């Protein structure tokens, strides 16, 4: 019965989270509903030491919902700790990659610029296991790359509206942490520095069966 309940809760949370468009379209009532579902799932968590099973965390994940306050219409500077040019962008997707080789931790934000060109900001870090569920992340670098191969570097810079000699990458020196509060093969809940909630699924997970 508990397994069936957990499955139902997960499916409901995934469905509601996906409908919020990464949290951009979310009422206060929906936000509370998501929080309640997340807490119920966390209470049924049978994996109390997720960081001891990093193989479950490894790979590429898609963010369905979060409370960390990112706006759809923003700029590259805001997406890169103030390191990249102040170019207006519209966020279209957010992903996270974790790999045990080299303890790699990446946050990737897909975007379009007003001209329609697509790009990706990448924040690269290295994680350290702090305890049974916490990862401490040291941020190392931020960069912006083109999302497709139909533009060369010069054309991509022109599409962004930045000078040819403007740096599109920069080193970082900050750090943060994330608590993994639930994880299985395809689904993960995470709470960050400010207790922000993140709902993620495997990048290749089918949202509808």
- What does the main sheet amount to? 8 strands, antiparallel, barrel
Query: Average pLDDT, to the nearest integer?
Result: 92
Contiguous runs where pLDDT drops below 50 for at least 5 residues: none
Report the strand count: 10
Order of strands in the sheet with the most strands? 1-3-4-5-6-8-9-10
What separation lies between the terminal Cα atoms?
A: 22 Å
In short:
The protein has 4 helices and 10 strands; from the N terminus they run H-H-H-E-E-E-E-E-E-H-E-E-E-E. By secondary structure, the chain is of the alpha+beta class.
Helices and strands, with pairings:
Blueprint: H1 2-19, H2 28-43, H3 54-57, E1 59-66, E2 73-75, E3 88-99, E4 104-112, E5 118-129, E6 134-146, H4 153-160, E7 169-171, E8 175-183, E9 187-192, E10 197-202
Antiparallel strand pairs: 1-3, 1-10, 2-3, 3-4, 4-5, 5-6, 6-7, 6-8, 8-9, 9-10
Helix pairs in contact: 1-2
Can you tell me about this structure?
The protein is an alpha+beta fold. It has four helices and ten strands; from the N terminus they run H-H-H-E-E-E-E-E-E-H-E-E-E-E. Strand 8 (175-183) and strand 9 (187-192) form a beta hairpin. Helix 1 packs antiparallel against helix 2 (28-43). The mean pLDDT is 92.
């Amino acid at each position: 019965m508990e397994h069936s309940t957990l499955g139902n809760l997960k499916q409901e949370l995934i469905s509601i989270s996906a409908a919020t468009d990464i949290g951009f379209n979310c009422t206060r009532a929906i936000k509370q509903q998501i929080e309640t579902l997340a807490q119920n799932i966390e209470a049924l968590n049978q994996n109390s030491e997720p960081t001891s099973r990093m193989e479950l965390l490894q790979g590429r994940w898609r963010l369905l919902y979060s409370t960390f306050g990112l706006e759809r219409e923003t700029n590259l500077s805001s997406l890169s700790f103030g390191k990249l040019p102040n170019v207006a962008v519209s966020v279209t997707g957010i992903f996270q990659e974790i790999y045990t080789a080299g303890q790699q931790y990446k946050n990737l934000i897909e975007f379009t610029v007003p001209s329609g060109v697509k790009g990706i900001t990448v924040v690269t870090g290295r994680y350290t296991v702090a305890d049974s569920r916490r990862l401490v992340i040291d941020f190392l670098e931020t960069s912006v790359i083109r999302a497709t191969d139909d533009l060369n570097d010069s054309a991509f810079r022109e599409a962004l509206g930045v000078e040819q000699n403007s740096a599109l990458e920069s080193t970082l020196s900050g750090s943060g942490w994330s608590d993994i509060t639930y994880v299985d093969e395809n689904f993960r809940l995470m709470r960050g520095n400010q207790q922000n909630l993140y709902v993620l699924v495997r990048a290749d997970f089918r949202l509808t069966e």
